Amino acid sequence: QVQLQESGPGLVKPSETLSLTCTVSGGSVSSSSYYWSWIRQPPGKGLEWIGYIYHSGSTNSNPSLKSRVTTSVDTSKNQFSLKLSSVTAADTAVYYCARDLLGYGSRGGNWFDPWGQGTLVTVSS
Amino acid sequence: SSELTQDPAVSVALGQTVRITCQGDSLRRYYASWYQQKPGQAPVLVIYGKNNRPSGIPDRFSGSSSGNTASLTITGAQAEDEADYYCNSRDSSGNHLDRVFGGGTKLTVL
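ok -> structure tokens follow
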């Protein structure tokens, strides 16, 4: 059974770069069947997709965050990572990593399963 | 980018049926997926594709789609179904590779 675990600092100063890593167990980030996504949830608010990375290194991110997001994958460690630059208090959130699958056929959407437990990152001086 | 719209809150009497909806242009093109989130926990996938349940999800959960609206139906709601529910789909504008979430619906079981 695939499990994901986020790790990284829980406190980041404004204007600095938030860095998180997601460690995958029970499965491989090298699989061609999956994307690997980051999702966040500000306290008391809804979910926001941040971006994904594919095992090949191909990436995509939310247009609203694109200029600040960098994602990478380390197949030797079975991990993928997120960097979000120039953070402000608005970036305070629980950050989740999740396996991201695309459906087949003309109407194939996507779904996230499983998710990591999430990690709270607070932006404050 | 596309948006997905959900009612902020819905309530249902114990044992009754409730439908939670998600509206957006991208749903004319792609199926939605649905997630249940209980307080302090990570979201859990409950419906994906046309109407598929992951292993371990009770069969009282079902999904459907019509036009620009996707629906999650809980038939015979239980107390443990009280949670926030989010829909998700691919964005049908732009490059079709972006993902988008609805704002979430808080389900109260009375």
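The first strand of chain B starts at residue 5 and ends at 6.
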